[in-house]
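Lecture notes, continued. The same structure-token format from the folding unit now serves as the input rather than the output. Read the line below as a description of shape only.
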């Protein structure tokens, strides 16, 4: 019996065939590599990430503002109730029956009494938010060199006798205070900086200054000790220091005249009651 032997060439061929088979199996089982994203897809993904980040930042910034606004909301108060304003301790209102806010020595004051309860400012400082809000003035603007301020008044405002609040009231008040500044108090920067006030139309008034003053709006037009407009149809013809009221209770005989809807007023040395 003849024994067959594999030649060197045959062994080498079998080895090559085995290696090729292993490579084919490995290629068949290897996971497919993902295709590289195109340049347009990369830019879109980056833009989307930026938008999401900005949206998150805006949401985070709005949360404190929303909380502050919710805290600043006040409950509705029935308007027919009586408001009683009293001084603390043994203090008394010396001029309890005088509702002229510009008379020297008047106890109307900026923080108690009739003035904050009856008169309303052109621009309101909101102590709940720390911001200024346009009030009787719906909008306003300076000229380029800060020597003029044009005020656009809020429509629909009336004095407590139903007379419309107009630019005539604003201009008359500022000019009257300018002419009588030496006799009046609570004028802020008006005596130094106001030249004149002029009516543009029924809802627009211009304040002309003697020199530039970018801060005039804050010092003289707001609740921060600013000017309170008076009704021209009541004050015109009166002397600047005239006591415009007496201790009576009706609108026609002594109630302070402001843009607040007051229908009843009772002054006393220790308090003032209004409805």
């Amino acid at each position: 019996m003849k024994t067959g032997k594999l030649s060197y060439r045959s062994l080498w061929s079998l080895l090559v065939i085995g290696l090729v088979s292993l490579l084919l199996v490995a290629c068949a089982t290897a996971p497919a590599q993902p295709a590289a994203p195109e340049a347009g897809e990369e830019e879109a993904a980056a833009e989307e990430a930026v938008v999401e980040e900005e949206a998150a930042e805006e949401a985070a910034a709005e949360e404190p503002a929303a909380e502050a606004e919710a805290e600043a909301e006040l409950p509705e108060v029935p308007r027919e109730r009586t408001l009683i304003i009293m001084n603390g301790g043994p203090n008394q209102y010396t001029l309890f029956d005088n509702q002229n806010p510009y008379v020297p020595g008047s106890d109307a004051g900026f923080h108690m009494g009739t003035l904050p309860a009856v008169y309303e400012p052109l621009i309101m400082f909101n102590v709940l938010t720390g911001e200024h809000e346009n009030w009787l003035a719906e909008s306003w603007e300076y000229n380029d060199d800060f020597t003029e301020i044009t005020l656009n008044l809020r429509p629909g405002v009336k004095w407590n006798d139903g007379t419309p609040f107009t630019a005539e009231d604003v201009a008359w008040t500022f000019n009257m205070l300018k002419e009588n500044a030496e006799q009046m108090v609570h004028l802020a920067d008006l005596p130094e900086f106001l030249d004149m006030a002029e009516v543009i139309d029924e809802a627009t008034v211009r304040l002309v200054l003697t020199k530039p003053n970018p801060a005039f709006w804050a010092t003289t037009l707001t609740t921060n000790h600013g000017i309170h407009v008076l009704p021209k149809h009541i004050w015109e013809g009166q002397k600047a220091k005239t006591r415009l009221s007496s201790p009576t209770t009706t609108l026609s005989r002594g109630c302070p005249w402001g843009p607040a809807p007051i229908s009843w007023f009772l002054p006393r040395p220790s308090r003032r009651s209004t409805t």
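Point for the exam: The chain has seven helices and nine strands.
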